[in-house]
Design brief:
Strand order of the largest sheet: 7-3-10-9-8
Largest sheet: 5 strands, antiparallel
CATH architecture of the largest domain: 2-Layer Sandwich
Number of strands: 10
Order of helices and strands: HHHEEHHHEEEEHHHHEHHEHEEH
Number of helices: 14
Distance between the termini: 50 Å
Strand content: 15-25%
Radius of gyration: 26 Å
CATH topology of the largest domain: Beta-Lactamase
Structural class: alpha+beta
Oligomer: single chain
Shape: elongated
CATH superfamily of the largest domain: GAF domain
């Protein structure tokens, strides 16, 4: 029975050759030949020996040959092996950490501003696409709710989460409500429901409305009805994306069809959120490469992502999206650091310690 990728470990020579090929391909975007490895690599091996090693790595599924006469390029399995055991432990340089911390500290403390700056930093520091997914409305913790009377029987609802995310919506009421009554309703809701997630608050409101006293008390009934519609959980997560134009200079996007697919990927934000949520579970940084996901396989791209949150409660996802030929040794620690930095800033905004 022939050996398969899972049946034998690579020799130290094979591992070093694979590492050199990946590093060279990341820099050049051109298939790597045995001559290139011999010239630029760290191993004193002849071209003939390198060809044999590269052929073995191809048979094992770590390399592929795009054309008969071309060199080799890494496969998804090759990149995964590089990430898991070849690139070694990496950290974000001190100057980059200082740059990130400085920009986040200078940002207004509202959550939307922090998310926007984080997305831009992800893109700027990686030269790839930076993505941040905001929390699901129903899972955010209520800090305050305010009602602003508009013309006629219309009211602007402003819901502020504990971490500073703000959701605005306009609702129609059965009758015009004076500012004084709206202030009273706002105070009642803030005092009784602050500290609950919007989903918990809405469930409690539904239960209160089912009780007899809510039916006979017109004032309380108005309060609960207005609150129920204010805390509608149908709002979708937002996706903040930065740096899509930076990818247009990448060799991988020389094909117009791939550019079209890239645009379609970021146009369908609901699908983007769904795939991101499915990809990233638990703590730590997740690396999705090529065929690992529908999101990355269509373009032969990679996603390096992690969750961010406050007090051990996940709020959203952030990450870097770009060609599989990315500098994982730089991108992975960058995503990890920005995930922690955003979590800490949101924790400071909410007044809760980050776990």
């Amino acid at each position: 029975m022939p050996e398969t990728q899972s049946q034998r470990n690579l020799s130290s020579r094979e591992r070093e050759v694979l590492k050199d090929i990946i590093l060279l391909y990341v820099l050049s975007a051109e298939p790597v030949s045995s001559r290139s490895v011999s010239k630029h690599g760290r191993l004193s091996l002849s071209a003939a020996t390198l060809r044999n090693v590269m052929s073995d790595l191809e048979e094992l599924g770590y390399l592929r040959q795009p054309h008969t006469s071309a060199g080799r390029v890494p496969t998804g399995a090759g990149y995964h092996l590089f990430v898991e055991s070849l690139m070694g432990s990496q950290t974000v340089p001190a100057r980059v950490r200082h740059y990130i911390d400085e920009h986040l500290r200078e940002t207004p403390t509202d959550a939307e501003g922090l998310v926007s700056v984080t997305s831009r930093l992800l893109s700027e520091l990686s030269q790839q696409v930076g993505i941040v997914v905001t929390p699901a409305v129903g899972e955010t913790v209520l800090r305050a709710i305010d009602f602003v009377p508009l013309t006629g029987a219309r009211v602007l609802v402003v819901v502020v989460s504990e971490t500073g995310f703000v959701d605005n919506k306009v609702i129609d009421t059965e009758r015009p409500l004076p500012r004084e009554e709206l202030v009273r309703i706002s105070n009642y809701l803030t005092e009784n429901f602050a500290g609950l997630t919007l989903r918990q608050a809405r469930d409690r409101l539904v239960a209160l409305m089912a009780e007899d006293r809510a039916k006979v008390d017109e004032i309380l009934g108005t309060t609960l009805d207005l609150a129920r519609r204010s805390l509608d959980l149908a709002a979708e997560r937002e996706v903040v994306v930065d740096g899509t134009t930076t990818l247009l200079s990448q060799p991988e996007l020389a094909d117009v069809q791939r550019v079209r697919r890239l645009i379609e990927t970021f146009t369908d934000k609901a699908r983007l959120v769904q795939v991101l949520n499915a990809c990233v579970e638990g703590k730590g940084v997740r690396v999705i490469i090529g065929e690992d996901s529908d999101l990355t396989s269509e373009l032969d791209f990679s996603l390096v992502a992690t969750r961010y949150g406050v007090g051990g409660r996940p709020l959203g996802t952030l990450g870097i999206f770009g060609p599989s030929r990315m500098e994982y040794q730089r991108v992975i620690p960058l995503v990890h650091y920005l995930g922690d930095a955003l979590s800490e800033m949101l924790a400071a905004t909410s007044g809760r310690p980050e776990e």
